[in-house]
Amino acid sequence: MTLTTDMLHMLDVLCPMHVQLDDAGRIAHAGSTLQKLYPDISLVGECFLEVFKLARPKRVTTMDDLIATAGQKLHLKKTTDPQTGLKGVLVPLPNEGGAIVNLGFGISILDAVSDYDLNAADFAATDLTIEMLYLVEAKSAAMEASRKLNLRLQGAMIAAEEQAFTDTLTGLKNRRALEHILPRMVNECTQFGLMQVDLDFFKEVNDTRGHAAGDAVLQHVARVLVESSRDDDCVARVGGDEFVLVFHGIVDLEILGRIANRIIAEVERPVPFQDATCKVSASVGISVYDGNGDTDMDQLLAQADTALYASKHAGRATYTVYDPKMRESGPLAG
């Protein structure tokens, strides 16, 4: 049986990854897709076992050995880079001593498509490889869409968490954020200074100038507090005109006193609003956590609160440092 030109054309259409071998094991004809694997040489005339390495079955070195594998699944690799893995099956040609070997990529298909720039035209129309490639492409598109959606959801979640911990009027952290930060610092035995700030005469501003004026004052105070703290400190608005500052690593009372005096002085600056000015002052209470001792957030806030009201009773616009003896001997006012 001699393969005619028409027969070879039919094989090219049905099996674009086939080779026809002569009785010496040389390639007499190669399908167009298989030829793409060797763009720099023509496969015709090459020894099949020199351009393709047979991994299984083993010990196949001659054409007779190769013919003996007829009907078995062949595992091959290219002998040049990239060493693409291939699967194949051999069918002997009657009366000619040659054979037809049909090859396929198997699980190497994705690498092959990329390495050799293959497309649908390089495969038989009935080859399931095409369907698999469509499925892989669809899966990749779905995974990319899922990745982008996850990124958007993560961004939305981060934004929602940030919003949940932020006071909308001033942009400062809120009580919820403070209740998250302070217990962690106590549990980690992190030293910090705690300062409660309460505005004096703020109600008069709201009553005489309106809530818009009150909002302008609160935003002014927020700027003062932020400018008086560092990036790793916490500044929170915990009530209408109540603020808490947590100074990471600062337990020196002299330093905290200087910060308090600066805050008091800046808060007292008149705040322009429309055709008038608004004036408030600030009372401050200070407590410290040195990283030792059995305490919690509520006790520390209560200590600062006690010191704050001592400042109120001392005439406002001042600061007081909490002292355990305060209830017995009175507050220490600055």
Automatic annotation (TrEMBL):
It comes from Shimia haliotis. PROSITE patterns: GGDEF. Its EC number is 4.6.1.2. Residues 190-324 form the GGDEF domain. The keyword Thylakoid does not apply. This is guanylate cyclase. The keyword rRNA processing does not apply. SUPFAM superfamilies: Nucleotide cyclase. It is an enzyme of class 4 (lyase). Gene3D superfamilies: 3.30.70.270, Haem NO binding associated domain (3.30.450.260). NCBIfam families: GGDEF. It comes from the Bacteria. CDD domains: GGDEF. GO terms for molecular function: guanylate cyclase activity; nucleotide binding. Keywords: cGMP biosynthesis, Nucleotide-binding.
